Amino acid sequence: MTGAHRRLAPGRLVIASHNEGKVREIRALLAPFGIEPVSAASLDLPEPEETGTTFAANAELKARASADLSGLPALADDSGLCVEALGGDPGIFSARWAGESKDFGVAMQLVEDALGKAGPETGRDAHFVCALSLCWPDGHIETFEGRSDGTLVWPPRGQQGFGYDPMFLPNGHKQTFGEMDPDAKHAMSHRAKAFAKLVAAVF
Ligand SMILES: O=P(O)(O)OP(=O)(O)OP(=O)(O)OC[C@H]1O[C@@H](n2cnc3c(O)ncnc32)[C@H](O)[C@@H]1O
Ligand SMILES: [Mg+2]
């Protein structure tokens, strides 16, 4: 982003996400900062169409939509799993690979099948990206990104986290994000890294 940072005043903040897993993680990350989080679902805010071509563009359009409609600052997250052998797919389409029923068992199987087609020589490296955008009701917006690098395991392991977590083994660790205690994921995830940048800028 460009320009000066703006401080976020204590008070209500909309978490502009309809993904319960993300909302849970963002609440935990916000807990120490005296902010009163309100979810987009509890305000009945619609889920905007994600027409952006980058994580940052989608995070910005989601944050802006919620800030406009609620009159409160809004924090949105756009994130996804990028697989090197698949040219970065599913990337910004990570949610869409799970289909209408949001079944990540299906989405992980699609990733595994695509990796099988790509062949063993291409490797199993992958990374998660998280873009966090904070938009104020007057339209001022700030965006921060974080990334976690790792490899993909099969079969998936663990019941913690959400989405693609059970098949993602972060570099230097023995447990997948699906097996890790939530606090351990928060200490190192793509979301936590983006959040640390946001904290440094606006709190
Ligand atoms: O747009 P919102 O309402 O926030 O919810 P969403 O689920 O549609 O979220 P995205 O558009 O950002 O899609 C990203 C998908 O990538 C996956 N994903 C993102 N972060 C993840 C994480 O930390 N662990 C596992 N999967 C993750 C997850 O399945 C998401 O559905
Ligand atoms: Mg989405």
Automatic annotation (TrEMBL):
Coiled coil: none annotated. Its cofactor is Mg(2+). Mg(2+) binds at E49, D78. Keywords: Hydrolase, Magnesium, Metal-binding, Nucleotide metabolism, Nucleotide-binding. Substrate binds at S17, H18, N19, E20, G21, K22, S79, F162, G163, Y164, D165, K185, H190, R191. SUPFAM superfamilies: ITPase-like (SSF52972). GO terms for biological process: nucleotide metabolic process; purine nucleoside triphosphate catabolic process. Its EC number is 3.6.1.66. InterPro entries: dITP/XTP_pyrophosphatase, ITPase-like_fam, RdgB/HAM1. It catalyses: ITP + H2O = IMP + diphosphate + H(+); dITP + H2O = dIMP + diphosphate + H(+); XTP + H2O = XMP + diphosphate + H(+). GO terms for cellular component: cytosol. GO terms for molecular function: dITP diphosphatase activity; ITP diphosphatase activity; metal ion binding; nucleotide binding; ribonucleoside triphosphate phosphatase activity; XTP diphosphatase activity. Binds 1 Mg(2+) ion per subunit. The active site is at D78. Signal peptide: none annotated. Belongs to the HAM1 NTPase family. This is dITP/XTP pyrophosphatase. The gene is rdgB.
